[in-house]
Amino acid sequence: MTLNDWIILLLAMAIPMHVILGACAYLILLERKLSAWMQDRVGPNRAGPMGLLQPLADGIKFILKEEMMPGHINKFLYVLAPGITCFTALFAFAVVPYGPTSSEPGVFPFIIAPNVDLGLLFLFAVGSLNVYGIILGGWASNNKYSALGALRASAQVVSYEIPLGMSVLGVILLAGSMNIETIMNQQIEHGFMGWNIWYQPLAALLFFTAAMAESNRLPFDLAECEQELVGGFHTEYSSMKFAMFALGEYVHITTLGFVLSCLYFGGWHFPWIATAESAYPGAWAVKVLVLLTKVFAVLVLIQLLRWTIPRFRFDQLMGLAWKVMIPLATVNVLMVMCFKQFGWDPMWMLPGSLAIFICAGVVGVQSARSGRSLAAAA
Amino acid sequence: MDISVYAILLYAGMVAGFVVVNLALTHLLSPNKRTAVKQMPYESGMDPVGDARQPFDVKFYIVAILFLVFDVELLFLYPWAVSAYIDDASGVPAGLRDTVFGVMLVFMATLAIAYVYAWRKGVFKWR
Q1: pLDDT tens digits for range A106-137
Q2: Within 10 A of A281 (CB to CB), how many other CB atoms are there?
Q3: pLDDT of residue A206
Q4: How many domains does chain A have?
Q5: How far apart (Å, rounded) are the C-alpha atoms in residues A38 and A102?
Q6: Would residue A299 count as lying in a domain?
Q7: Helix A349-370 and helix A201-214, axial crossing angle in degrees, nearest 10
Q8: In chain B, positions 29-48, which contact chain A (CB-CB < 8 Å)?
Q9: pLDDT tier at A377 (50, 70, 90 boundaries)?
Q10: Centroid of chain to Cα A299
Q11: What digits encode the pLDDT tens for the residues A60-112?
C-alpha cells in the first residue's frame, strides 16, 4: 500500500468517527429541544444562540466534573463498563456504509472496512457486546437500583437480539449476501421499486423495534426507568463515565439509522436526485447527503416516539419479544423462503407481509378478548 | 491480508484510544474530594440495608438459556440464507435446492415444536 492509500484509509476512519461523536452531542441537544417542544417548554436556550453551544458546555462539564467513585464498588469493572459500552457502540460502525461505497484502491471508500462479507454478523456480534457494559456496570456498582436495572436490561437486550437477527434474514435471502454494501448496491441497481421496504415492510418494522430495544431507548428503557430505578445500571456513575453510557446509546441509534437506511431504504439512492447513473460533478456529496437525510429522519422519528408511546411493563416487554416478534420474524423468513423456492413474483411480498401482520393482529385481539389466550393456557 | 482487516484493527485501536484518553483525562483533570456520605451507595437518601448482590429470580436464567438456544439456531440460518439462492459456485447447486428447502422446513418445524413446548411450560410468562 502506498502512502496515499494509508491517508485515505485513515481519513475514511477518522471523519465518520468524529462526525458521529459531534453529531451525538448535537443529537442530545436536539432531543432536549424536541422534548421541550412536545411538552410545551422552551428547552435549553442559555448557552449560545438557541442553546447551540450547550453540547460544548456539557462536554467541558463532563470532563471537569468531580469523578465520583463510591466506596463499595469493584473498581476495575466499574471503570471498564462504560468503556465497553462506548467502544462496542463505536466499533460496530466499522462495517456500515456512509456514502457511495467503493473498494477500489485510491478512491475514498465511504466505509471504514470495505468488503467485509460477514458485515451484518459483525455488526450484531459487536453491537450486542454492549450487554457486557450494562451487566458489569450494574454489578460493579453494588447498588440495588443498579443491580435491578442491569438484570432487567440484560434480559431485555438478550431477548430482542433474536428478532433483530431474524428480521434481517429475509433481506439476506433476497440479496444472497451478508455484506451491507452488496445489499445496498443491489437495491440501488433496481431503482426506487428495488428498495427492500417494498418487499420486507414487516421485517423493517421488526428490525426497527428490536434495534430500539437493543439500544435501551424509550419506550424500551426498562433499564433506566427514572421513576422506579433512578438511573438503572448507571445510577452510581457520574461525569465522563456517565457520558460514555449516554454516548454509547446515541451512537447505537445513529448506527441503527444508517443500517435501517442501507438495508431497507436503498442507502444513498433517491429517484432522480441520486441514482446509479447520476455522475454529475459533486454527485458523491448529494449521495452522502441523501443517506444522511434518511438517517436524520430515522433519528427524529426515534426521538418523537420517545414522547408518544408510554413505557412497557416488564412482562409486556418480554411478551412482545418472545410471543409476538419472534413468531412474526420466523413467519416472515418462511414467506421469503417460499417466494424464492417457488419463484413467485416478489411483488406479492408486500401484500403477503401485510396479511401476516393483520393475521397476527387479529389472533392477538381474539385471544385477548376470549380471555383464554395461549398465555393463560400455559 | 485484506485491506479490511487492517482497517478494522486500526479502527479498533482508534476507538479504544478515544475511550481510554477520555477516561484518563477526566481522572486527571477532575477534583476528587471524598467524604463518607459521598461514598455511600445511592438509595434515594435512605441508609442502605444489606448487600446489593443478592440471589435473583430464576426467570432471568431461563431467558438466558432460551436466548442461547434461539441464537445458535439463528447462527445455523445465516449460512443457509446467504448460500441458498445465489447462482454462482459458492451457492447451493440448483439440483439440491429442493432438498435444502425440505431440510429447512424440517429444521423450522423442530424449532416450532421447541417453541410451543417452552410456551406451554410458561417460560414466557412473568409473574
Answers
A1: 778 888 888 888 888 899 889 888 888 888 88
A2: 6
A3: 92
A4: 1
A5: 41
A6: yes
A7: 60
A8: 29-34, 38-44, 48
A9: very low
A10: 9
A11: 888 888 887 877 788 888 888 889 999 999 999 888 888 888 777 777 888 88
Q: In whole angstroms, how far apart are CA B30 and each of A63, A86, B22?
A: 7, 20, 12
Identify whether A80 is part of a domain: yes
DSSP state of B48: P
Identify any residues that bridge with A274 across adjacent strands, giving them in sequence order: A270
Interface of A with B in 197-236 (CB under 8 A): 230, 235-236
Kindly state the greatest CA–CA separation across chain A: 70
Confidence category of residue A149, pLDDT binned at 50, 70, 90: confident
Q: Burial level of A71, CB count in 10 A (0-12/13-18/19+)?
A: exposed
Is the CB of A68 less than 8 angstroms away from the CB of B23? no
Look up the pTM and report it.
Answer: 0.90
- What is residue A323's DSSP assignment? I
**Domain of A371, in residue numbers:** 71-377
What pLDDT does residue A71 have? 77
Q: Do A142 and B91 touch (CB under 8 A)?
A: no
Mean predicted confidence (pLDDT) in B70-97: 84
Distance between CA atoms of A235 and B43, rounded to whole angstroms? 9
The SS3 assignment for A359 reads helix
Q: Evaluate whether residue A106 is within a structural domain.
A: yes
Using CA atoms in the order B26, B27, B29, B34, what is the torsion angle rounded to 10 degrees? 120
What average pLDDT does chain A have?
85
DSSP B40: S
- CA B69 vs. chain centroid, Å, equals 12
CB within 8 Å of chain A, chain B residues 85-104:
85-86, 91, 97-98, 101, 104
For chain A, how big is the Rg over CA atoms in Å? 22
The residues that bridge with A355 in the sheet, in sequence order, are none
Residue A116 contacts B, CB cutoff 8 Å:
yes
A40 found inside a domain: no
Considering chain A, what percentage of its residues have pLDDT values greater than 70? 95
A77 touches chain B (CB under 8 A): no
Asked whether the CA dihedral B48, B53, B55, B61 is positive or negative, the reply is positive
Check residues A103 and A240 and name the one with the higher pLDDT.
A240
Residue A228: what pLDDT? 66
> Which cell goes with A132?
457486557
Q: Which residue has the higher pLDDT, A265 or B88?
A: A265
Tell me the C-alpha distance between B86 and B74, whole Å.
20
